[in-house]
Amino acid sequence: MEQHFLVNPEKIGRILSHAEPTPRDHVIELGAGAGTIAQHLPPVGRLTLVERDSELAADLEVRFPDSEVRPTDAIPVLPDLAGDVLLVSLPHTLVQEVLDRLRPGSFRCVLLAVREGQDLSPWGDRFSFTEVAALSGRDF
Questions:
Q1: Residues 6 or more apart in contact with residue 76 via CB below 8 angstroms
Q2: Tens digits of per-residue pLDDT, 3-61?
Q3: pLDDT given for residue 93 in this prediction
Q4: Which of 42, 47, 123, 137 has the fewest CB atoms within 10 Å distance of its CB?
Q5: Of 89, 82, 107, 124, nearest in space to 11 by CA
Q6: Strand 109-112 and strand 85-88: pairing?
C-alpha cells in the first residue's frame, strides 16, 4: 500500500490547534507513519504511536523515545484504546471501519481525514463532526 504523510505545517497546525492537547493529555496517533504530525505536538503527558510498518515503527521508537510505539495494525486495536486526543492518520478509505469500531466517549477529541462529500450521517447519532481543514494532494 502506498504511504502518504501529511507534511503541510499550516494544516498540521490547524489540526493540532483544534485538538488542543494539554501537558496532561494522552494523545494517540493511529498510522503515525514517519511522525510528521507527532513532531509538531506540544509536550503531552503520554504519547502512543500506532504504526503497522515495522521499519517506520522502528524509526518512531528512535525519534520519539519517550513515547509508546505499537507496531501493529490500528483497526483491530482501536476498540481497546482510550485517551484524550485521537489523531487518525489512516487513509480515508478506512473511515467507516474507524467510526464503526470507535467507542463513543473514549476520547475528548478525534481527528480523522474523510473524503470530500463522504456521508457521515450513519454515525451522526454517536458522534458530532466539524470540518477542521480541507486537505489536498499538495499537503502530502
A1: none
A2: 678 778 888 888 899 999 999 999 999 999 999 999 999 999 999 999 999 999 999 99
A3: 87
A4: 137
A5: 89
A6: parallel
Under DSSP, the state recorded for 41 is P
| Residue 1, pLDDT score | 52
Strand partners, 46: 26
Q: What is the DSSP secondary structure assignment for residue 53, as one 8-state letter?
A: -
Q: Which three cell numbers stand for residue 102?
A: 470507535
16 and 41 in contact (C-beta within 8 Å)? yes
In this structure, the number of other CB atoms found within 10 A of the CB of residue 71 comes to: 16
Output Rg (C-alpha) for the chain, integer angstroms. 14
CA 76 from chain centre, in angstroms, equals 15
- For residue 41, how far is the Cα from the chain centroid? 12
User: With contact defined as beta carbons under 8 Å apart, do 27 and 83 qualify?
Assistant: yes
